[in-house]
Amino acid sequence: MFDPSQNKAYQIVEHAHKGGYAVPAICCYNIEGILASVRAAEAKKSPVLVQLFPWAVEYADGVLVHAAAEAARNASVPVAVHMDHAQTPDMVRRAADLGGFDGIMVDMSHYEREENLSKTKELVEYCASKGIVTEAEPGRITGTEDGVADIAELQSVLTTPEQAEEFVATGIQWLAPAFGNVHGKYGPQGPQLELDRLRGLVSAVGDRVRFVLHGAGAEYFDEKRFRDCVDAGMVKANINDIVNDAYLHIMREKAANTPLTKLLEEVTDAMQKQVELCMDWLGSTGKA
């Protein structure tokens, strides 16, 4: 019988829930991102989740996974490893079988509702058999042409309490709701977040699952917007371009005339500063 309370990622997110803050989950694509995340966590005395996409497994099999797991084990503060947006049953099972992941997002949101639920339940059970906690989302929306989200589509995928209940029944530990947040471009008006909807979802199922923020792009999210989401019930916040853009910026500016080892150190330092900023914004600083 799976006991999620023994899982490190679960413990980290539960601590955030009880402490009224959100733990940053940093999307990492390379060793520099992993190091930046762990070093920031140690510097700020903050917990952190290192997140890898399926791309990392397809690109390097278990190399980055095991590197992240080793960094997490050796850290002086709580660090866990999570896979974001595993979108096929084969990838979920492959990630679970690799070892090294504490959590996996079982993202079957591109399937129709019934198949989404049935596949999610089956894969959640598989992950549980490996001691891995799971995350899921009821629906998915991305920006459309010219970065303008289709309003009718947006309304159609906003999570309802009934949908939240259906996903809780699959056995997940974490839920990524749609409350106006978007994967990708928000369009000219920026995020139109329905925080009352989020609060309603937390009221409905927050005794059984924790809530995850997706779509927190650097162009749109600042400290106030993050704090509004945390105050409404988010306890895990996925962070991507806020950190990884720092890597790209340094590479563009300095790659042509900087020794490689120094360049790698500089990009790691720049990313670490951005992770630390997010920890301050999310309230996780000093909580380790």
UniProtKB/TrEMBL annotation:
<dbReference type="GO" id="GO:0008270">
    <property type="term" value="F:zinc ion binding"/>
</dbReference>
<dbReference type="GO" id="GO:0004332">
    <property type="term" value="F:fructose-bisphosphate aldolase activity"/>
</dbReference>
<dbReference type="InterPro" id="IPR013785">
    <property type="entry name" value="Aldolase_TIM"/>
</dbReference>
<keyword id="KW-0324">Glycolysis</keyword>
<dbReference type="InterPro" id="IPR050246">
    <property type="entry name" value="Class_II_FBP_aldolase"/>
</dbReference>
<keyword id="KW-0862">Zinc</keyword>
<keyword id="KW-0456">Lyase</keyword>
<dbReference type="InterPro" id="IPR000771">
    <property type="entry name" value="FBA_II"/>
</dbReference>
<dbReference type="Pfam" id="PF01116">
    <property type="entry name" value="F_bP_aldolase"/>
</dbReference>
<protein>
    <recommendedName>
        <fullName>Fructose-bisphosphate aldolase</fullName>
        <ecNumber>4.1.2.13</ecNumber>
    </recommendedName>
</protein>
<keyword id="KW-0479">Metal-binding</keyword>
<feature type="binding site">
    <location>
        <position position="183"/>
    </location>
    <ligand>
        <name>Zn(2+) 1</name>
    </ligand>
</feature>
<comment type="similarity">
    <text>Belongs to the class II fructose-bisphosphate aldolase family.</text>
</comment>
<feature type="binding site">
    <location>
        <position position="107"/>
    </location>
    <ligand>
        <name>Zn(2+) 2</name>
    </ligand>
</feature>
<comment type="function">
    <text>Catalyzes the aldol condensation of dihydroxyacetone phosphate (DHAP or glycerone-phosphate) with glyceraldehyde 3-phosphate (G3P) to form fructose 1,6-bisphosphate (FBP) in gluconeogenesis and the reverse reaction in glycolysis.</text>
</comment>
<feature type="binding site">
    <location>
        <position position="85"/>
    </location>
    <ligand>
        <name>Zn(2+) 1</name>
    </ligand>
</feature>
<feature type="binding site">
    <location>
        <position position="137"/>
    </location>
    <ligand>
        <name>Zn(2+) 2</name>
    </ligand>
</feature>
<feature type="active site" description="Proton donor">
    <location>
        <position position="84"/>
    </location>
</feature>
<feature type="binding site">
    <location>
        <position position="214"/>
    </location>
    <ligand>
        <name>Zn(2+) 1</name>
    </ligand>
</feature>
<dbReference type="GO" id="GO:0006096">
    <property type="term" value="P:glycolytic process"/>
</dbReference>
<comment type="pathway">
    <text>Carbohydrate degradation; glycolysis; D-glyceraldehyde 3-phosphate and glycerone phosphate from D-glucose: step 4/4.</text>
</comment>
